[in-house]
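On clarity, I found the account of how folds are encoded harder to follow than it need be. What matters is that the chain and its backbone geometry are given together, residue for residue. For the editor and my fellow referees, an illustration may be useful. For illustration, here is how one protein appears when written out as sequence plus structure tokens:

___
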Amino acid sequence: MAGATGVAGVSDDPHEQARQVCLRLLTLAPRSSAQLADAMRRKGVPAEAAEAVLSRLAEVGLIDDAAFARAWVESRHHARGLSRRALTLELERRGVAGEDVQAAVGALDPDAEVATARRLVAKAMPGTRGREPQARVRRLVGLLARRGYPAPLAYRVVREALEQEGVDAEDVEIDLDSIDETSGAGHDAYE
């Protein structure tokens, strides 16, 4: 009896079950096709039905991993100040294909990323006043590190902000030449 409703109102038809799982999740928030596939696998939807439903949803434009990646980068960079590296990792964890990740992250202007790092530091600076300069540096660099910014960029932006406040960088002992350049993958975009 295809299409009959089983336990708790869930259809016995695997295609209908797959469609319901996907539409329910897409109603809550945009999802990548990998996230939807994973959700259907957890619900026991047969792979054939899951693939057919994903294909149909992509065909009608309800899922588009490239658009998902672009929107993700735009919102997470501007709202949370995440770096290219952090955004890349988040999209990869959501199962977005490498070429879609690179296209979306590549559209993020390196100058805008540096400006965002400066904005984050400027916003956090008042909360560090009254602390020892080294403690301020650790706190501010840590803020940027948690958002995925490479060490050379983080230290440079923090040094600039402290110098604008009149703190002598020599007193803080920020030696950019001693920073391991390999720790900031992609740092050359910030030079």
